[in-house]
Amino acid sequence: MPDLYETRDARTSDIPALAVIADATLFPGEMLGDMMAPALTGEGDDIWRVVCKYDTPVGFAFAQPEAMTQGTWNLRAIATDPAVHGSGAGTALLAAVEAALGDARLLVIDTTQTEDQARARRFYAARGCTHVATIPGFFGPDEDKVTFIKTLT
Fold first, then answer.
1. What is residue 143's three-state secondary structure?
2. Which residues of 22-39 are buried (b: 16+ CB within 10 A; e: fewer)?
């Protein structure tokens, strides 16, 4: 369904819709305004992409350059409305982030080993990302950090 989804830079007007998605998937949506502010005002290097279905935002992705590296970026967040899971919206977002990174050489993606993140781990593996590390207890006593990478250049 190549015409079903359109990706673009995030806009301030997207925040209410994206906050609902964040609440349903990743973190409290009330955090989005402050998180997105540098990108929305043109400050810093953060990348925020939105995926839309019929001009309605149905997901977002956020990436930042890794300090003290050459061409390494971290995908800090990617989320889609649960109603569109499995329909290509996440794939479109990941592709949009990769395209926005230009000549970056490496994308780092962190998730967890928890059951609620199993779908995310399968998603990354199916899109050419390689599981490179698991750090036990990183996020908490029972929550490991599971790291994937994707070589871009």
1. strand
2. beebbeebeebeebbeeb
Structure tokens at 34: 């402050």
**For residue 130, how many other CB atoms are within 10 A of its CB?**
12
Residue 145 has pLDDT above 90, yes or no: yes
Domain enclosing residue 74, as ranges: 5-151
Q: Is the pLDDT of residue 1 over 80?
A: no
Question: How far apart (Å, rounded) are the C-alpha atoms in residues 75 and 9?
Answer: 15
Number of domains in the chain: 1
Question: At 59, is the secondary structure helix, strand, or coil?
Answer: strand
Copy the structure tokens of residue 28.
Answer: 């409290």
pLDDT digits (tens, 9 = 90+) for 78-88: 999 999 999 99
What is the CATH classification number for the domain harbouring 41? 3.40.630.30
| Closest by CA position to 90, among listed 123, 64, 63 | 123
Looking at residue 3, what is its pLDDT?
66
Predicted model pTM:
0.92
